[in-house]
Design a protein that fits this description.
The chain is mainly beta. The chain has one domain (7-74). The protein has one helix at 40-46, and strands at residues 7-8, 24-29, 35-38, 55-60, 66-71. The protein has a five-stranded antiparallel β-sheet, covered by helices on one side.
C-alpha cells in the first residue's frame, strides 16, 4: 500500500536567510525554542532534529510543490530522529 503524500502548503522560503525555493525545506523546532521553515543550511545550524515534536523535511518536486520525505506523523521510512545535522550539499 502506498503511503499518503503530504505536501507543504505554506511559503516556499527560509524564515531565517529568506532563500527562495530551496531544494529542501524543514518545518522544524529550532534551538531557540521557536518553530520555523528553514533551508538545509539554516537547519544544520538551528534545527533540533526530525520527527514528532522536532520537525519534517520536504523536498521540492519538479512541479514546484514540496513533498514531505522525513519526520512528522506520516511514519515515513528513513526518518532521522537524531539531533545530528543532515549530510549533503
Amino acid at each position: 500500500m502506498e503511503r499518503e503524500k503530504i505536501y507543504w502548503l505554506g511559503a516556499h522560503h527560509c524564515d531565517v536567510c529568506r532563500k527562495m525555493n530551496p531544494p529542501e525545506l524543514y518545518n522544524c523546532r529550532t534551538n531557540l525554542g521557536v518553530w520555523g521553515m528553514l533551508c538545509k543550511e539554516c537547519f544544520n545550524i538551528l534545527g533540533v532534529g526530525l520527527g514528532i515534536g522536532k520537525g519534517q523535511r520536504y523536498e521540492r518536486q519538479e512541479d514546484g510543490k514540496y513533498l514531505q520525505v522525513e519526520g512528522g506523523s506520516a511514519n515515513l521510512s528513513g526518518t532521522n530522529n537524531s539531533n545530528e545535522p543532515i549530510e549533503g550539499d
